[in-house]
Design goal:
The protein is of the alpha+beta class and 106 residues long. It has two helices and four strands. It has a two-stranded antiparallel sheet with strand order 1-2. The longest helix has 23 residues. The radius of gyration is 15 Å and the shape is globular. The chain starts with 13 loop residues before the first helix and ends with a helix.
Length: 106
């Protein structure tokens, strides 16, 4: 999420865009690669319900992955997923993912 309020990616300044594409996204991708080993990524900046520039980094998997005692299966692998469909996890598992990402990024 951008620290200042804008809606459109074209409103980003050069320094913000450089930081996102040359630092933030590569570091996040490396951390997720280490933790989960996805087969590919989808990136999205939709803004349909949250009118503030933000990006979704969506790891995609051809087979199951496990983390924090949960098994994850990408039901829509090799096809488009529908908005709102997906696997929701408990707050506890989400917190474990976030903590592990922070550790990987540091």
């Amino acid at each position: 999420v951008l620290k200042r309020h804008i809606v459109d990616i074209n409103e980003m300044g050069d320094a913000e865009r450089d930081e996102l594409f040359n630092s933030v996204l590569p570091e996040l991708k490396e951390a997720i690669d280490t933790m989960f080993g996805p087969d590919l990524y989808n990136y999205a900046s939709l803004g349909n319900s949250e009118r503030h520039l933000h990006f979704h980094v969506i790891p995609r998997y051809s087979d199951t992955r496990s983390f924090a005692g949960q098994v994850f299966n990408d039901e829509a692998w090799n096809s488009h997923y529908k908005n709102g469909e997906g696997r929701y996890v408990s707050r506890e598992v989400l917190d474990e993912v976030m903590e592990s990402l922070v550790e990987e990024l540091n």
